From TrEMBL:
Protein name, entry field: TauD/TfdA family dioxygenase
InterPro entries: TauD-like_sf (IPR042098), TauD/TfdA-like (IPR003819)
Record key words, sorted: Dioxygenase, Oxidoreductase
Originating organism: Bradyrhizobium barranii subsp. barranii
Coiled-coil ranges per UniProt: none
GO molecular function, one term: 2-oxoglutarate-dependent dioxygenase activity
Presence of keyword Protein biosynthesis: no
SUPFAM superfamilies on file: Clavaminate synthase-like
Domain called TauD/TfdA-like: residue spans: 142-224
Record flagged with keyword Oxidoreductase: yes
Amino acid sequence: MKTVPATIVDLPALLATLEERGWATLSAVRPEAGGIIGELSRLGDILGVRTAGRGSALEEVIQPQRQSEAHSRSLSALFGLSALPFHAELSHRPRPCRYLLLGCIDTGSPSAVTVLLDWRTLGFSSEEFELLEGAPILVRCGRSSFYTTVLPSDRSFFRYDPGCLEAVDARGRAALRLVEDRLTGGAPHSHEWRPGGILIIDNWRVLHGRGPSDHGSGRRLARILIDA
Ligand SMILES: [Fe+2]
């Protein structure tokens, strides 16, 4: 896709691209950390309201972490520098955030791709939708843990994160196995990063993951999460 500078973004065109395929790419005019974070913030403020991630910061710079360095309930604590599996950001919240904005400060060496997969392409049958909408799933999040389903009845978002979702019965196990199987057989898009590149993901529609990385690769992405 053609990339345009984030500062001259045409909002209707951006929303149309997000509607069409669930993610959009832009490029920061100032590709250093401060410039990228500033442009992500401006874009985020256009799309909705910023919300904090696990680290409780509204703006974060994320980098590949070893298992021992990561937040105890994060995917990095489970997978470390290996590939991070597909997930929806903030699946441990009652409603995951709507948009995930990432900006590349440093690709790292070796670089690691971000993989994207639209859950609507996973070919669920009506019986499978019933399972995903009905099977109880436990979201493990300390004192805020709660029971829910992978899909809400309006199918507006898809809750999935192997780091915090847990089956509590046979139907739940079947639902999570179904998702895992379909994700394995899906046809993801691999996003290659370049410095100053910005990726906006509709987190209700497109799951994301990361390719394997190396400790000390230098990969750094700015991240902003948006409720809308
Ligand atoms: Fe993520």
